[in-house]
Write a structure and sequence with these properties.
It is built from one helix and six strands; from the N terminus they run βαβββββ.
């Protein structure tokens, strides 16, 4: 994570989310689909970002345009139940897990 020391994400910065089980990898190819999956608690990466699945347990979100972004280390975010993130076999309930952002930027 993080490029500069300004406390905000720079264009091209990445946030990597690691899950402890294989997931069903919901679509995250645009800002809209990332926002449908993750509740950033009123914070933002900026005006444009997208995600990609590196594997069944690793989601990477990349900042495309950080204008207006205010997401910072120690902010908390949650998976939205409506995002339908489940175990790879589809048998779990939708996740509502949460994390605190670590790192520095």
């Amino acid at each position: 994570m993080g490029g500069g020391s300004s406390g905000v994400l720079d264009n091209g910065d990445k946030i990597i989310i690691l899950f402890d089980v294989d997931t069903n990898q919901p679509l995250v190819d645009s800002k809209a689909t990332v926002d449908a999956l993750i509740d950033f608690q009123g914070k933002s990466f900026g005006t444009d970002y997208s995600g990609s699945w590196d594997d069944l347990r690793t989601l990477t979100i990349t900042v495309i345009d950080n204008a207006g972004g205010n997401l910072a280390p120690m902010d908390v975010f949650y998976i939205k139940a409506g995002g339908n993130l489940r175990t790879a076999d589809g048998l779990s309930q939708p996740s509502t897990a949460g994390w605190t952002i670590g790192g520095s930027f």
